[in-house]
Amino acid sequence: MAGPAMIPVIRPWLGEEEAEAAASVVRSGWVAQGPQVAAFEVAFAEEAGAGHGVAVSSCTTGLHLALHLLRIGPGDEVVVPSFSFIATANAARYVGATPVFADVDPVTGNLTPETVNAVITPRTAAVIGVHQGGVPFDVDALEAFCSTKSIPLVHDSACAAGSTYRGAPVSARASLAAWSFHPRKLLTTGEGGMITTSNEQWAARLRRLREHGMSMSAADRHSAGGVKIEEYDEVGFNFRMTDIQAAIGLVQLAKLPEVIARRRELAERYHKLLGEIDGLTCVTDPEYGTTNYQSFWVVLPDGFERTVVDVLSELLLHGISARRGIMASHLEPAYSWVDLPVTDHLTKRSLILPLFHQMTESEQDTVVTALAEIIR
Questions:
Q1: Which CATH number among 3.40.1280.10, 3.90.1150.10, 3.10.290.10, 3.20.20.140 corresponds to the domain 255-375?
Q2: Is the pTM of this model over 0.85?
Q3: Bridge partners, 344 (sequence order)
């Protein structure tokens, strides 16, 4: 006998418009990085309130390029939150630097000046601040702290498309910000990412670096006419986005305001319904900004003795696919254990509930009823 229909943790909002955009690129014969990527870069930078956008193959490669651009390498330390997907810490490793884990604020799950200050050393060369799950970190506070220490601050905005800080796009003032378009994000191109920056020279160099260090992109060479021979002034990478992805991204970008409005509507309803469970806390807006609710995470009551894995297993029996909360990189075998009490508590006591654009109130009621039954 079949069980209940599964409620997924996320379901990308994709349809015929995206399919037609991708098909149009295929029919054009130019499917690699080209005019659609250029258009997507301009449109996304405008949405993000940034001067320039540089499309890349993922947010991870975006972080890698950002640190490479800042000339961070062996002997340097990069302060990162452990309370983040492991790619944040890995980016420091890719350039030969050492990631140093800082603890986070217990409410937002983000770095603060105090948590960063506790771990900086004379070798600290950069800080990567993560807008975790779409919840903005306090940009003014962290930027001011890093400025007094002459340490560059890179925004990991992987989850934050559409989040705001003091009424503006969350990373509008960032010197460098990296974004993700993975299917778990509000805006997806399947895979893919973007770097935004206010620095025109940095943007130009990032475009060269993402394409093997070529002095002229393949698309520009193709459209220039005549014979054009590119040069390679430095070692670069193959971190390009395709025009197929960018065409989908342009359609998705147009949908972003509607996606955010719907997610915030569903999140408000979660808050109302889950507020009846004693001791359960939910992710919410900080006082200085708004979250896009890329992840709706909850922290189990302190007196509740069962583990997150127990709860996830029970939810599965109810036809609900939830996820563990934000991972803690310092607990993974690839990294070393350090003392991060807030991070340890959040990662061991939190889980992510289903939230997606097409979610019905009936599906949401099923999630709430099941979770309340398990906890009570």
A1: 3.90.1150.10
A2: yes
A3: none
Closest CA to 5 of 268, 359, 308: 359
What residue ranges do the domains of the chain occupy? 16-253, 255-375
Burial of 252 by CB count in 10 Å (0-12 exposed, 13-18 middle, 19+ buried)?
buried
- Reading the block at residue 254, the tokens are 């147009």
Residues sharing a CB contact under 8 Å with residue 150, sequence separation 6 or more, in sequence order: none
* Residues 239-285: tens digit of each pLDDT: 999 999 999 999 999 999 999 999 999 999 999 999 999 999 999 99
- Residues 342 and 8: their CA atoms lie apart, in Å, by 28
Average pLDDT over residues 358-365: 98
Cα 370 from Cα 168, distance rounded (Å): 37
Three-state secondary-structure class, residue 178 = strand
The three-class DSSP label of residue 132 is helix
Instruction: Cite the active site residues.
Output: 185
User: Is residue 31 classed as helix, strand or coil in its secondary structure?
Assistant: coil
Q: Report yes or no: 344 and 328 within 8 Å, Cβ to Cβ.
A: yes
Please spell the DSSP secondary structure of 287-356, one letter per residue.
TTEE---SSEEEE--TT--S-HHHHHHHHHHTTB--EE-S-BGGGSTTS-----HHHHHHHHHEEEEP--
Query: Residue 222's pLDDT band (boundaries 50, 70, 90)?
Result: low
Q: Are strands 77-81 and 124-130 parallel, antiparallel or unpaired?
A: parallel
Separation of alpha carbons 174 and 183, rounded Å: 24
Element (H, E) at 54: strand 52-56
CA distances from 196 to 63, 172, 176, 177, 237 (A): 11, 9, 6, 5, 18
Tell me how far apart the alpha carbons of residues 6 and 260 are, in angstroms, rounded to a whole number.
Answer: 23
Q: Does the fold of domain 255-375 match that of domain 16-253?
A: no
**Per-residue model confidence as pLDDT tens digits over 59-112:** 999 999 999 999 999 999 999 999 999 999 999 999 999 999 999 999 999 999
Domain 16-253 indexed as CATH 3.30.420.10:
no
* Nearest-angstrom CA–CA distance, 11 and 102: 32
Q: Report the distance separating Cα 80 and Cα 104, nearest Å.
A: 10
